[in-house]
């Protein structure tokens, strides 16, 4: 079986990481899997780039301009919206024509247009679409937050100036997506049970097959290691307890750095003994880390944006607790990675986070937007939990649910089912 995995980027972003790991998992399981991306960043033979890179860049810029115009030339929400008005016709490429199954992932920012996706569906090839956020189930947004318009029909979009209208950009794209899906079936896969449940509520996906399969992780790469060696590699103090926060862009408001800062301030007030205070540090992994490090009451170590997987693994191995206070999440790769390295995790009760973290077993699930409870969770992981038991529970959870073999086996069933239905 030949599977073509389509994603905008090869390595940048959570969806890219997940798509790349799935490609490896499938290849290791005997499937001939290949990635097709717009942004190729390595020399991997299993990854192909779109041709005509200048045209691809034009697609990206034109879509941003159209969105910017609808936002009345305001930058706010410029990258919260995608309309898929232009993209590359991949049905003409040899990678597409050789494939038995087309597996879409995150295909925004000028990668595929709605017209191209319809051509993919019209090709007769079985199509699987892994949802990394809500965009396939909404008109234009990736994060719905408190908006429930997608349950009926997107219009009067809160991301548009003045709250949109009955025939705004969202309403028009919604109708185009309806036309794209009309009379066609896609096997949708959500990375978390929460996202699958939300997708089933979308009237856009009514009648479509939706199931949940988590992202895979290579447990040979993300694994236990020497805390001392990891800290030396990253230039972190060998002594003391480290709270780790990681995000592609630390200043992204949806990743909740403000809540971590407030939780740390509460910890500093509650545990004022100088020894306790000096013993706790915060390591920040991600772009713009230096912009927030000065706001923390503990010693902070901005590690910056790291592409080297060895150093990323070392960051987890160096930590005593990983904290991700996101305001909206699917099934975060970062929590999975930390747990694979035996590190307890703390996050809010939102999205797929409670599926990954078993409360007070391998981490702590805090009440949503509750900095006080977040602080309690961090303290539990640092001082109250049995380190050996928690470490073991973290690894067991990852091996059972997120290992390459487990996830590849489940996806193979999806491919076989959708292929057999095509031939009935």
What this model shows, in words?
The radius of gyration is 22 Å and the shape is globular. Helix content is 39%, strand content 17%. It is built from 15 helices and 13 strands.
Give the SSE map.
Blueprint: E1 2-9, H1 14-28, E2 32-39, E3 47-49, H2 53-70, H3 94-98, E4 101-104, H4 114-122, E5 127-131, H5 169-181, E6 187-190, H6 193-200, E7 209-212, H7 227-234, E8 241-249, H8 257-270, H9 274-279, E9 280-287, E10 299-304, H10 309-318, E11 321-324, H11 333-340, E12 345-348, H12 353-356, E13 363-366, H13 371-384, H14 387-401, H15 404-422
Parallel strand pairs: 1-2, 1-4, 2-3, 4-5, 5-6, 6-7, 8-9, 8-11, 9-10, 11-12, 12-13
Helix pairs in contact: 1-15, 4-5, 7-10, 8-13, 11-14
What's the mean pLDDT score? 94
Give the overall shape, derived from the CA principal axes: globular
Instruction: Output the helix-strand order.
Output: EHEEHHEHEHEHEHEHHEEHEHEHEHHH
* Poorly predicted parts: none
Q: How many beta-strand runs?
A: 13
Largest sheet, in brief, is: 7 strands, parallel
Give the end-to-end Cα distance, rounded to a whole number of Å: 18 Å
Structure classification: alpha/beta
Strands of the widest sheet, in order across it, are 3-2-1-4-5-6-7
Percent range for helical residues?
25-40%
Helix run count: 15
User: Beta fraction of the residues?
Assistant: 15-25%
Radius of gyration, taken over Cα atoms and rounded to an integer in Å: 22 Å
């Amino acid at each position: 079986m030949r599977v073509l995995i389509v994603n905008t980027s090869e390595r940048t972003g959570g969806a890219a990481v997940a798509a790349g790991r799935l490609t490896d998992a499938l290849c290791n399981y005997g499937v001939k899997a290949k990635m097709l991306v717009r942004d190729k960043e390595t020399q991997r033979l299993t990854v192909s780039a779109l041709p005509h890179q200048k045209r691809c860049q034009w697609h990206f810029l034109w879509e941003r301009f159209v969105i910017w115009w609808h936002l009345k030339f305001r930058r706010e929400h410029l990258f919260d919206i995608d309309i898929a008005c232009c993209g590359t016709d991949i049905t003409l490429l040899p990678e597409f024509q050789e494939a038995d199954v087309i597996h879409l992932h995150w295909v925004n920012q000028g990668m595929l247009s709605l017209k191209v996706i319809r051509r993919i569906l019209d090709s007769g090839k079985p199509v699987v679409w892994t949802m990394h956020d809500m965009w396939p189930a909404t008109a234009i947004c990736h994060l719905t937050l408190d908006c429930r318009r997608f349950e009926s029909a997107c219009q009067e979009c809160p991301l548009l100036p003045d709250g949109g209208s009955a025939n705004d950009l969202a309403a028009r794209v919604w109708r185009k997506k309806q036309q794209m899906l009309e009379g066609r079936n896609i096997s949708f896969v959500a990375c978390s049970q929460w996202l699958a449940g939300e997708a089933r509520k979308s009237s856009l996906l009514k009648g479509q097959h939706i199931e949940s399969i988590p992202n895979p992780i290579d447990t040979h790469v993300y694994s236990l290691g020497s805390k001392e060696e990891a800290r030396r590699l990253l230039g972190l103090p060998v002594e003391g307890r480290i709270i780790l926060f990681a995000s592609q862009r630390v200043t992204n408001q949806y990743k909740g750095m403000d809540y971590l800062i407030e939780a740390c301030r509460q910890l500093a007030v509650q545990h004022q003994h100088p020894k306790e205070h000096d013993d706790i540090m915060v390591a920040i992994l991600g772009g713009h880390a230096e912009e927030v490090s000065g706001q923390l009451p503990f010693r902070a170590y901005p590690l910056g944006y790291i592409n080297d997987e060895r150093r990323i693994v070392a960051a987890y191995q160096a930590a005593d607790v990983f904290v991700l206070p996101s305001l909206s999440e699917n099934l975060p790769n970062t929590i999975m990675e930390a747990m694979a390295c035996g590190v307890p995790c703390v996050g809010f009760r939102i999205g797929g986070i409670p599926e990954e973290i078993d409360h007070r077993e391998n981490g702590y699930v805090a009440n949503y937007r509750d900095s006080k409870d977040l602080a309690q969770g961090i303290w539990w992981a640092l001082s109250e939990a049995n380190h050996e038991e928690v470490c073991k529970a973290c690894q067991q959870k990852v091996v059972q649910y997120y290992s390459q073999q487990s996830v590849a086996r489940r996806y193979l069933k999806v491919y076989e089912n959708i292929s057999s239905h095509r031939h009935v």
